[in-house]
Amino acid sequence: MEDIQAVIARNLAKLRKSRGLSLDQTAELTGVSKAMLAQIEKGKSNPTVSTLWKIANGLQVSFSLFMKEEKPVIKTINISELDSIDDNDGKYRVYPFFPYHPEKKFEIYIVTLEPGCVHGEKTHLGEEYILIKEGQLTIQLQGEIYVLGSGDAMQFPSGIPHNYSNLTKEQASFFLLMHYPESDEI
What we know:
Structural class: alpha+beta
Largest sheet: 6 strands, antiparallel
CATH topology of the largest domain: Jelly Rolls
Shape: elongated
Strand order of the largest sheet: 1-2-3-10-5-8
Helix content: 10-25%
Strand content: 25-35%
CATH architecture of the largest domain: Sandwich
Mean pLDDT: 90
Number of domains: 2
Distance between the termini: 25 Å
Number of helices: 4
Protein backbone atom coordinates (compact mmCIF):
# COMPACT_ATOMS: atom_id res chain seq x y z
CA MET A 1 0.00 0.00 0.00
CA GLU A 2 1.31 3.40 -0.99
CA ASP A 3 2.18 5.97 1.69
CA ILE A 4 -0.85 8.23 2.31
CA GLN A 5 1.26 11.40 2.09
CA ALA A 6 2.40 10.41 -1.42
CA VAL A 7 -1.17 9.57 -2.45
CA ILE A 8 -2.46 12.95 -1.26
CA ALA A 9 0.44 14.75 -2.99
CA ARG A 10 -0.18 13.03 -6.32
CA ASN A 11 -3.96 13.50 -6.21
CA LEU A 12 -3.78 17.19 -5.32
CA ALA A 13 -1.24 17.93 -8.07
CA LYS A 14 -3.21 15.93 -10.62
CA LEU A 15 -6.49 17.68 -9.74
CA ARG A 16 -4.95 21.16 -9.78
CA LYS A 17 -3.21 20.59 -13.12
CA SER A 18 -6.28 18.97 -14.71
CA ARG A 19 -8.17 22.19 -13.95
CA GLY A 20 -5.36 24.37 -15.27
CA LEU A 21 -4.93 26.09 -11.92
CA SER A 22 -1.73 27.67 -10.69
CA LEU A 23 -0.69 27.35 -7.06
CA ASP A 24 -1.70 30.99 -6.57
CA GLN A 25 -5.19 30.36 -7.98
CA THR A 26 -5.58 27.21 -5.88
CA ALA A 27 -4.51 29.12 -2.77
CA GLU A 28 -7.11 31.79 -3.51
CA LEU A 29 -9.89 29.20 -3.99
CA THR A 30 -9.03 27.14 -0.91
CA GLY A 31 -7.69 29.60 1.65
CA VAL A 32 -4.58 27.41 2.01
CA SER A 33 -1.28 29.20 1.40
CA LYS A 34 0.64 28.70 -1.82
CA ALA A 35 3.65 27.53 0.21
CA MET A 36 1.57 24.89 2.05
CA LEU A 37 0.00 23.65 -1.21
CA ALA A 38 3.48 23.35 -2.77
CA GLN A 39 4.77 21.44 0.27
CA ILE A 40 1.76 19.05 0.12
CA GLU A 41 2.21 18.45 -3.62
CA LYS A 42 5.90 17.69 -3.14
CA GLY A 43 5.07 15.22 -0.38
CA LYS A 44 7.04 17.27 2.14
CA SER A 45 4.06 18.15 4.32
CA ASN A 46 1.43 15.86 5.74
CA PRO A 47 -1.72 18.01 5.73
CA THR A 48 -4.13 18.04 8.64
CA VAL A 49 -7.73 16.95 8.22
CA SER A 50 -8.77 20.62 8.48
CA THR A 51 -6.39 21.60 5.70
CA LEU A 52 -7.65 18.81 3.44
CA TRP A 53 -11.24 19.88 4.10
CA LYS A 54 -10.37 23.46 3.12
CA ILE A 55 -8.81 22.24 -0.10
CA ALA A 56 -11.73 19.89 -0.86
CA ASN A 57 -14.31 22.60 -0.21
CA GLY A 58 -12.40 25.21 -2.21
CA LEU A 59 -12.01 22.88 -5.19
CA GLN A 60 -15.51 21.44 -4.70
CA VAL A 61 -14.46 17.80 -4.53
CA SER A 62 -14.97 15.06 -1.97
CA PHE A 63 -12.55 14.76 0.93
CA SER A 64 -11.89 11.11 0.04
CA LEU A 65 -10.69 12.03 -3.47
CA PHE A 66 -7.31 12.89 -1.97
CA MET A 67 -6.89 9.39 -0.48
CA LYS A 68 -7.82 7.51 -3.65
CA GLU A 69 -5.02 5.25 -4.85
CA GLU A 70 -4.35 5.03 -8.56
CA LYS A 71 -2.79 1.63 -8.74
CA PRO A 72 -5.21 -1.24 -8.96
CA VAL A 73 -4.85 -3.51 -5.97
CA ILE A 74 -4.40 -7.12 -6.96
CA LYS A 75 -5.50 -9.53 -4.29
CA THR A 76 -5.68 -13.30 -4.32
CA ILE A 77 -7.47 -15.27 -1.64
CA ASN A 78 -7.80 -18.97 -1.01
CA ILE A 79 -10.77 -20.22 1.00
CA SER A 80 -8.40 -22.24 3.19
CA GLU A 81 -6.91 -18.92 4.41
CA LEU A 82 -10.26 -17.65 5.68
CA ASP A 83 -12.09 -18.28 8.93
CA SER A 84 -15.75 -18.94 8.39
CA ILE A 85 -18.60 -17.34 10.26
CA ASP A 86 -20.91 -20.20 11.24
CA ASP A 87 -24.59 -20.62 12.04
CA ASN A 88 -26.98 -23.55 12.41
CA ASP A 89 -24.42 -25.54 14.45
CA GLY A 90 -21.79 -25.19 11.71
CA LYS A 91 -24.10 -26.35 8.91
CA TYR A 92 -24.23 -22.83 7.45
CA ARG A 93 -20.80 -21.28 6.86
CA VAL A 94 -19.95 -17.89 5.40
CA TYR A 95 -16.44 -17.16 4.09
CA PRO A 96 -15.80 -13.40 3.74
CA PHE A 97 -13.72 -13.10 0.56
CA PHE A 98 -14.11 -9.36 0.05
CA PRO A 99 -15.63 -7.59 3.07
CA TYR A 100 -17.69 -4.44 2.70
CA HIS A 101 -15.91 -1.26 1.62
CA PRO A 102 -17.93 1.99 1.63
CA GLU A 103 -16.43 3.23 -1.64
CA LYS A 104 -17.34 0.02 -3.47
CA LYS A 105 -20.68 -0.59 -1.71
CA PHE A 106 -20.52 -4.36 -1.96
CA GLU A 107 -19.14 -7.46 -0.27
CA ILE A 108 -18.56 -10.98 -1.61
CA TYR A 109 -18.82 -14.27 0.25
CA ILE A 110 -18.86 -17.96 -0.43
CA VAL A 111 -21.59 -19.65 1.58
CA THR A 112 -21.83 -23.40 2.19
CA LEU A 113 -24.83 -25.32 3.47
CA GLU A 114 -24.53 -28.87 4.68
CA PRO A 115 -27.23 -31.39 3.73
CA GLY A 116 -30.48 -30.71 5.57
CA CYS A 117 -29.52 -27.17 6.61
CA VAL A 118 -32.33 -24.62 6.77
CA HIS A 119 -31.06 -21.11 7.44
CA GLY A 120 -33.98 -19.16 8.93
CA GLU A 121 -35.93 -16.29 7.46
CA LYS A 122 -34.28 -12.88 7.56
CA THR A 123 -34.33 -9.39 6.09
CA HIS A 124 -31.57 -6.79 5.89
CA LEU A 125 -30.25 -3.85 3.87
CA GLY A 126 -29.16 -4.08 0.27
CA GLU A 127 -29.57 -6.42 -2.66
CA GLU A 128 -28.42 -10.04 -2.92
CA TYR A 129 -26.83 -11.58 -5.98
CA ILE A 130 -26.49 -15.35 -5.70
CA LEU A 131 -24.54 -17.57 -8.07
CA ILE A 132 -24.68 -21.29 -7.32
CA LYS A 133 -21.25 -22.87 -7.27
CA GLU A 134 -22.22 -26.48 -6.54
CA GLY A 135 -25.15 -28.48 -5.29
CA GLN A 136 -28.71 -27.31 -5.03
CA LEU A 137 -30.06 -24.38 -3.05
CA THR A 138 -33.72 -23.79 -2.21
CA ILE A 139 -34.68 -20.19 -1.54
CA GLN A 140 -38.00 -19.16 -0.08
CA LEU A 141 -38.83 -15.60 -1.06
CA GLN A 142 -42.20 -13.88 -0.63
CA GLY A 143 -43.93 -17.22 -0.20
CA GLU A 144 -42.45 -18.59 -3.44
CA ILE A 145 -39.96 -21.46 -3.60
CA TYR A 146 -37.01 -21.25 -5.98
CA VAL A 147 -34.71 -24.21 -6.54
CA LEU A 148 -31.34 -23.28 -8.00
CA GLY A 149 -28.60 -25.63 -9.17
CA SER A 150 -24.98 -25.32 -10.22
CA GLY A 151 -24.60 -22.46 -12.70
CA ASP A 152 -27.90 -20.77 -11.77
CA ALA A 153 -28.13 -17.24 -10.41
CA MET A 154 -30.69 -15.04 -8.68
CA GLN A 155 -31.01 -11.41 -7.57
CA PHE A 156 -33.48 -9.89 -5.10
CA PRO A 157 -33.85 -7.01 -2.64
CA SER A 158 -32.62 -8.18 0.78
CA GLY A 159 -35.46 -6.38 2.55
CA ILE A 160 -37.82 -9.14 1.38
CA PRO A 161 -38.05 -11.98 3.95
CA HIS A 162 -36.01 -14.92 2.65
CA ASN A 163 -34.37 -18.15 3.76
CA TYR A 164 -31.95 -20.68 2.34
CA SER A 165 -32.24 -24.47 2.48
CA ASN A 166 -30.23 -27.43 1.30
CA LEU A 167 -32.78 -30.21 1.04
CA THR A 168 -30.38 -32.63 -0.66
CA LYS A 169 -27.81 -35.13 0.62
CA GLU A 170 -24.88 -33.18 -0.91
CA GLN A 171 -23.23 -29.96 0.24
CA ALA A 172 -24.41 -26.80 -1.52
CA SER A 173 -22.30 -23.69 -1.98
CA PHE A 174 -22.85 -20.36 -3.60
CA PHE A 175 -21.23 -17.01 -4.19
CA LEU A 176 -23.08 -14.18 -2.48
CA LEU A 177 -22.55 -10.60 -3.54
CA MET A 178 -24.25 -8.12 -1.22
CA HIS A 179 -24.72 -4.70 -2.78
CA TYR A 180 -25.66 -1.63 -0.73
CA PRO A 181 -26.68 0.96 -3.35
CA GLU A 182 -28.07 3.67 -1.10
CA SER A 183 -26.13 3.64 2.14
CA ASP A 184 -22.52 3.84 3.25
CA GLU A 185 -23.58 2.92 6.77
CA ILE A 186 -23.88 -0.74 7.68
